[in-house]
Structure formats: C-alpha cells, structure tokens
Amino acid sequence: MKAEEDAKISSCPIQLLFLRSRWINEYPALGAKRFEELASYYSEPHRYYHTLWHIADFLNEFEEVPLVLKPRERKAACLAVWYHDAVYNPTKNDNEEQSALIAESHLTQAGMSDIIGEVLPLIIATKHIHLPENELEDMIVDADLSILGRDNDKYRHYAHAIRQEYSMYSEKDYRSGRATFMAKFLKRKNLFHTTYFQGKYETMARKNLTEELDFLRGKRPLKEYCPL
C-alpha cells in the first residue's frame, strides 16, 4: 500500500494538471513531451516515496526559503528539483548521476545547454554524500530532506514508503542497514545545513529519526511505531 500523501497526488488529476501546467509555463522549450516523460519515471511501480508528490513537496519547500535568488538561479534550482530523482533504483548508487544525464540530454535538445553547468551540480548535491559547496546547494539539500522534520504522522508514512521501496531486502537486513545509516546521520552536529531549516525542522527531525531508530533496533513494536 502506498503512503497516503503519495496516493493523493498520484490519484488527483487536478494536482497533476497543475504540475503539468507549471512545467509548460516555466519551460516552454522543454514542453509537454518532457513533462510526460518525467511523470512516467516518477510513476514507476517500485516508487512509493520518490514520486511526483516528492517533487511537488520539494518545490514548495524550496520556494518558501527566504533566499533572494536571481531568476537564472531559481530556474536552475527548480530544474534540478524536477530531475534529481528521474532515475531511482534502490539497489544502485549512481541514481543522481544517471538523473543528471537525463537532464543534460533534455536541456541540450531543448536548446538550454547554457544552464546545464548550473543544474547538474545541484542534482548531484542531492546525493547527500559531500558537503554542499554554496548557499544554493545548502538550500536544495535541506529542502530535499525536509520530510525528516515533518509531523510524526507524515514522517511515519515516509518511513513506511521507504521500506516499501526496499522491499527486495529482508526485514533483518533492512533494519540493520537503515539503522546503521540513521545512527551515523544522527551523530552530525546539525542535520540541516542552513539556519532556516535548522530552525524549522531540526528538533522534530531528531525526534523522528530517534524514534525510527529505536523501532529498527527492536526497542519499539511495529504496531506502536507505524500507524499503517
């Protein structure tokens, strides 16, 4: 079963129509064909969190950031959001690189090659391996992880959706791998890079991650942790 928020956007024609209209209005050179192509990627059956719902939510979070951007910077950032999870295979570790290749191909064919050099680094930044190199990357990376600091119910739906995307792994292996990752993540001085997202989500994100980690380590039963 897909998480509730994902089901809402995937089954609501009005929301999909809004995203399509926004894409066409902002990127006429890319056009409806490229939107449909991206929508098909984000609608792949193995996706439960990394869907168009995530893209819409990511865009909303980023655009609420009180950061003064030049029109070109905003365009590059939003394009990076649209493309950053175009390729998503939980068993691979080059998803962002492959997504960047799709973005490069689309932008080149649309005559937008002049902005490629600004879009691709932002896509790669969402790999969350290296520290962001500038303020714009800081904001992109933080907005991508904003789900970590949402209210408890939304976070648990997210956690459930991620588990479904990794359904090829046994419960034991999944718990072990995710617990190791989360424990390492929680050791960071700050989960978010910017003061804006630290103030908005840091406290709740630590609470959510700690509760999930307790569950993964067997300290809390499934029926207590997950409402689904």
Task: Report what the structure shows.
- The chain is mainly α and 228 residues long.
- It folds into two domains: 4-128, no CATH class; 147-225, no CATH class.
- Helix content is 66%, strand content 0%.
- The chain contains twelve helices and no strands.
- The model is unreliable at 1-9 (pLDDT under 50).
Write the layout of secondary structure elements.
Layout: H1 4-11, H2 13-26, H3 31-42, H4 52-63, H5 71-83, H6 95-109, H7 116-125, H8 135-144, H9 152-165, H10 171-186, H11 195-216, H12 222-225
Helix pairs in contact: 4-8, 5-7, 6-7, 10-11
Give a quick precis of the structure:
The chain is an all-alpha fold and about 230 residues long. The protein has helices at about 5-10, 15-25, 30-40, 50-65, 70-85, 95-110, 115-125, 135-145, 150-165, 170-185, 195-215, 220-225. The protein has two domains: about 5-130, no CATH class; about 145-225, no CATH class.
